[in-house]
Request: fold
Amino acid sequence: MLTLKKVKELVEAPSHAKRTPSPKMLFEEGIVLLRREFDQGSHLTVYNSGYVLFSAGKRNTVFHIHDCCGDYAYDAAEGKGDVIKEEYFENCEWHIRALFEGERKMEDNQAKCEGAGRSNVCVSYHALSEDWSEIADRTINMLEKIIENEAVHAMLAVLTDKQRDLIHQQFVLGKTHQEIADDMGISRGSVTRAVNQALERIRRKFDFEAHYELAAGGLA
Reply:
């Protein structure tokens, strides 16, 4: 997993004496280091200079990867708020914090345009932001959903095909160990041992229990 911390180590911190490059300048002169695509054509591109281009629709914004720092405050459903500590993002996939920094920059750009009387200049947002109210209505926090999806894929990647199948049958399909054993033609004890080995393999690889409760349905 390429974490935000590792990406920051790959590039130098920005010089305050230099102006932030324009999207056009990055397109024409920049050397791409990393790229992450999202739905509806939006994407994050990190250049070897450390500058990040966030594109959503016809709108672009540029910031430095080292700008992705500090605690991140967000509003959860039903008016409740929470704060994610900087250390947590530093050890997550690099694009998670960068995505939210890009969203924040676009919001700032729109506010500046409206303040200058250019309310007709509309900034496009990532699909996740546009669906915010719908997600909140379902009491699902956007940030938690992104992190959970990333974590699930990362955890399943460390398992064998057989282990992934067993985990899927138990936690997604909701089968008992006896039902799985009957379907596979093996003993119930063999299923229990194999599932426990898979869970232990995940726990050894990740600091899992601090953020998710697999037995309570974290993969459902």
Observations:
- The radius of gyration is 21 Å.
